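Message: Study each token:
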Amino acid sequence: MNTDVRLLLLSPDDNIFVLRAAVEAGETIVVSGQQIQISTRIGLGHKIARNAIGKGDKVLKYGASIGSATCEMSPGDHVHLQNLKSDYTPTYSLESERDAHTGERT
């Protein structure tokens, strides 16, 4: 599989690449042997879709979910705040830090 050297795959399970260098609108990159034209400038360190990602699909970086896609994405699409939603849910509350019997902080 030929892939552009500007793309970094952090885990074989990932569905995104991290850019090792910025790419400009109109540039062509090669993803798994497929030529893809970039529609907008994407900066160094940003993420692009490795393959098609469906709305609601988990976006994987380092083999772990970093959120869910809020829309359909094609290979080479910029993956960022405009199309990624965090799945983080806080697991604490201030009241749970108090001892139920004494009312003191634990």
Summary: The radius of gyration is 19 Å. The mean pLDDT is 88. The beta strands are 7-8, 16-19, 28-31, 34-37, 47-49, 58-61, 64-69, 78-79, 84-85. The domain at 7-89 is CATH 2.30.130.110 (Archaeosine Trna-guanine Transglycosylase; Chain: A, domain 4).
